[in-house]
């Protein structure tokens, strides 16, 4: 499928499922290298809804002891960030003294990440790292270092592979970019 229409908007194919899987291969290899000697399980914290596909594909490649938990936040309405962060499902794990890796589908303005990072830091993890499949460097306003990036992309609205437009398009195996 080269083009998809979702509600009032037209999107064109930009990253195929194969592109995405090879980015995840590279990203997971870096993580496996960096954590190969870990003795205590690393806690992955996946941000729902968007990161569900990325999380599933990444986790299948992880070769060190790890656990996975999910948290749900929202900062988007339509095709632009609202800047309002709502925590819908909270964290139940005790992260004190643990290494935590946040899993994001995409880091855009970084506002979501900033809030989450500040909240989690108060819970005293030993180390708090960020892994994102996609990163929009031209939109990023944050000061936090994004430790693991699958792919840096232009500042355009995209859908598919977990990313949505008003709740739709998350099921698409490829990623599509908006046609202006
Ligand atoms: P931020 O707070 O602006 O960094 O946005 C973070 C969240 O907004 C991501 O986790 C996504 O769920 C959503 N988001 C950001 N950019 C896009 C996009 O291009 N398409 C769909 N959702 C996006």
Task: Give me a quick take on this structure.
With 180 residues, this protein is α/β, with parallel strands linked by helices. The chain has helices spanning 17-34, 52-59, 111-121, and strands at residues 3-6, 9-15, 42-48, 66-77, 80-89, 99-107, 127-135, 148-152, 158-159, 175-178.
Structure in words:
The chain is built from three helices and ten strands. It is of the alpha/beta class and 180 residues long. The chain has a domain at 17-70 and 94-152: Rossmann fold (3-Layer(aba) Sandwich). Strand 3 (42-48), helix 2 (52-59) and strand 4 (66-77) form a beta-alpha-beta unit. It is globular and about 45 Å long. The structure holds inosinic acid. Inosinic acid binds next to strand 4, strand 6, helix 3 and strand 9.
Structure summary, number of beta strands:
10
Bound molecules: inosinic acid
CATH fold topology of the domain at 17-70 and 94-152: Rossmann fold
Secondary structure category: alpha/beta
Spell the H/E element sequence. Answer: EEHEHEEEHEEEE
The CATH class of the domain at 17-70 and 94-152, by name, is: Alpha Beta
Helix content: 10-25%
Separation, N- and C-terminal Cα atoms? 19 Å
Trace the largest sheet across and list its strands.
5-4-3-6-7-8
Radius of gyration: 16 Å
Poorly predicted sequence stretches spanning 5 or more consecutive residues: none
Q: What shape does the CA trace take?
A: globular
Report the average pLDDT across residues.
92
């Amino acid at each position: 499928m080269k083009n998809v229409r979702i509600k009032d908007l037209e999107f064109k194919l930009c990253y195929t499922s194969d592109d995405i899987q090879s980015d995840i291969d590279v990203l997971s290899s870096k993580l496996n290298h960096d954590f190969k000697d870990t003795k205590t399980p690393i806690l992955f914290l996946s941000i729902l809804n968007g990161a569900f596909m990325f999380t599933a594909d990444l986790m299948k490649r992880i070769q060190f002891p790890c656990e996975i938990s999910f948290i749900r936040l929202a900062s988007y309405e339509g095709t632009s960030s609202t800047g309002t962060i709502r925590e819908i499902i909270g964290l139940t794990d005790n992260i004190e003294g643990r290494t935590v890796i946040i899993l994001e589908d995409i880091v855009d303005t970084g506002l979501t990440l900033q809030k989450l990072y500040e909240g989690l830091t108060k819970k005293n993890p030993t180390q708090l790292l960020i892994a994102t499949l996609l990163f929009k460097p031209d939109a990023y306003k944050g000061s936090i270092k994004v430790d693991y990036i699958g792919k840096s992309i232009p500042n355009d609205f995209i859908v598919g592979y977990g990313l949505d437009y008003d709740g739709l398009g998350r099921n698409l195996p490829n990623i599509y970019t908006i046609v202006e």
